[in-house]
């Protein structure tokens, strides 16, 4: 396997000259994965945040199989189907009440791409020149061009700087930075040049699970509302229970104009994404003039099999068993936080829902994919735990069904890393 991989395959975010050989995984069950040598791994990051209900989940697999043998796919241009309409109804009951229209695509980046394109074209259709976007510093919204433009992690996007739409960045309203964030936003929205403000609500995932309070975000959304700037909540990471509520936006008193969903949407089984819209935005495209339509689509738009997987996932999410799991993981995280946050090498620990992030004290700034990070990564892999630290930040975002025993193993090894990795 590794020989063929080395011969033909190009991996994501990987410098192949210096990267270690990948680990060949043969199967998974629950929170566990096994490699070709039979070594067991605890998936402490739910395979890049996609898998809440465990690997090889039978309930979702059955739903996928039934759908595959009924209607595996049909084009969505000019056609519709039950999995899409039922999923729409179920999602509408869970989304903020102002969300009225769903647009399907394939991944988080395309969900963001569609929200940004819709924002720009909404104003274009009205003959209003609003061509720029506002985003947070160090945000991550994906790797396609508009999503990349909105993303603020510079080394991801440096090579393409000249080809990106214009994006202004404001500080994240973390504790103590609320006013600076608000002031920066106020200055931008009054120019009349900005179509939308995109943000990861409450938790910036790729930045290292950076967290801020709902009240701060409510203030920013209100300023946008008052100045006709659309708000886009990128819930690709936070959606479907990660923060302890179905959506991070459920902590808000305001509502965003658009939401981007993917990752856990199908329980980590089939690539699928949805961008959701208010009626006002949809109406900005509704016209006798065909040119005012949103000319965006993907071949596999609203793939019925993906919809069936999403429906089964939503059913699992809404069981009392799964809700209990989310509360259990959260209280275990909080107990671990109390136990370790006073450690002299621990700079800070933050918890929201099933997400825990711990910053290890270091001199100077840590590179995203730097030496210290690599030492931590290798330490955890050696212990049979999949954790991908961001610089000096170690975060945990396990499948909700992870056992108490496996959680304990993760905490013990994080503690050991804090004490022994320099
Ligand atoms: C992962 C992520 C994306 C990109 O999703 P892909 O499926 O990798 O394209 C966008 N936004 C956020 C907040 C993400 O965490």
TrEMBL record:
This protein's pathway: Cofactor biosynthesis; biotin biosynthesis; 7,8-diaminononanoate from 8-amino-7-oxononanoate (SAM route): step 1/1
Modified residues (N6-(pyridoxal phosphate)lysine): 263
Keywords from the named record: Aminotransferase, Biotin biosynthesis, Cytoplasm, Pyridoxal phosphate, S-adenosyl-L-methionine, Transferase
Annotated GO CC locations: cytoplasm
UniProt-listed InterPro entries: Aminotrans_3, BioA, PyrdxlP-dep_Trfase, PyrdxlP-dep_Trfase_major, PyrdxlP-dep_Trfase_small
Chief subcellular location: cytoplasm
Pfam entry (one): Aminotran_3
UniProt: substrate binding residues: 48, 263, 297, 388
Site feature location: Participates in the substrate recognition with KAPA and in a stacking interaction with the adenine ring of SAM: 13
Cofactors required: pyridoxal 5'-phosphate
Top EC class, one word: transferase
Protein's cellular compartments: Cytoplasm
Keyword presence, Disulfide bond: no
Record has Chaperone as a keyword: no
Gene Ontology MF terms in the entry: 2 iron, 2 sulfur cluster binding; adenosylmethionine-8-amino-7-oxononanoate transaminase activity; dethiobiotin synthase activity; pyridoxal phosphate binding
Stored HAMAP family: BioA (MF_00834)
Function: Catalyzes the transfer of the alpha-amino group from S-adenosyl-L-methionine (SAM) to 7-keto-8-aminopelargonic acid (KAPA) to form 7,8-diaminopelargonic acid (DAPA). It is the only aminotransferase known to utilize SAM as an amino donor.
Oligomeric form and interacting partners: Homodimer.
Name under which the protein is recorded: Adenosylmethionine-8-amino-7-oxononanoate aminotransferase
Organism in which the protein naturally occurs: Flavobacterium zepuense
Classification lineage: Bacteria, Pseudomonadati, Bacteroidota, Flavobacteriia, Flavobacteriales
Gene behind the chain: bioA
């Amino acid at each position: 396997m590794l020989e063929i991989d080395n011969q033909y395959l190009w991996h994501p975010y990987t410098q192949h000259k210096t990267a270690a050989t990948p680990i060949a995984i043969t199967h998974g069950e629950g929170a566990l994965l096994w490699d070709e040598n039979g070594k067991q791994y605890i998936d402490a990051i739910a395979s890049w945040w996609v898998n809440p209900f465990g690997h090889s989940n039978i309930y979702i697999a059955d739903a996928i199989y039934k759908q595959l043998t009924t209607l595996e796919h049909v084009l969505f241009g000019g056609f519709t189907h039950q999995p899409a309409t039922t999923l729409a109804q179920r999602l509408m009951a869970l989304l903020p009440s102002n969300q009225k229209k769903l647009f399907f695509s394939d991944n988080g980046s395309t969900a963001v791409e569609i929200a940004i394109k819709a924002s720009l074209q909404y104003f274009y259709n009205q003959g209003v020149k609003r061509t720029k976007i506002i985003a947070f510093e160090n945000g991550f919204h994906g790797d396609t061009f508009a999503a990349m433009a909105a993303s603020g992690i510079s080394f991801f996007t440096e090579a393409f700087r000249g080809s990106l739409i214009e994006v202004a960045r404001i500080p994240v309203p973390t504790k103590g930075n609320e006013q600076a964030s608000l002031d920066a936003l106020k200055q931008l929205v009054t120019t009349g040049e900005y179509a939308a403000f995109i943000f990861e609500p409450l938790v910036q995932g790729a930045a290292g699970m950076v967290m801020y309070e709902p009240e701060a975000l409510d203030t920013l959304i209100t300023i946008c509302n008052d100045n006709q700037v659309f708000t886009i909540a990128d819930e690709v990471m936070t959606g479907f229970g990660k923060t302890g509520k179905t959506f991070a936006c459920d902590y808000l008193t305001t509502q965003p104009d658009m939401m981007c969903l993917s990752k856990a949407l199908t329980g980590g089984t089939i690539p699928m994404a949805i961008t959701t819209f208010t009626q006002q935005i949809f109406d900005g495209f509704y016209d006798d003039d065909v040119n005012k339509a949103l000319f965006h689509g993907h071949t596999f738009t609203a793939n019925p099999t993906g919809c069936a997987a999403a429906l089964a996932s939503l059913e699992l999410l809404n069981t009392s068993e799964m809700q209990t799991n989310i509360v259990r993981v959260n209280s275990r995280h909080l107990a671990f936080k109390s136990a370790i946050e006073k450690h002299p090498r621990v700079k800070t620990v933050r918890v929201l829902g099933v997400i825990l992030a711990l910053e290890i004290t270091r001199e100077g700034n840590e590179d995203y994919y730097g030496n210290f990070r690599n030492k931590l990564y290798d330490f955890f892999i050696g212990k049979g735990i999949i954790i991908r630290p961001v610089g000096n930040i170690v975060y945990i975002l396990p499948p909700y069904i992870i056992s108490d025993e496996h959680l304990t193993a993760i905490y013990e090894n994080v503690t050991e890393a804090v004490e022994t990795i320099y």
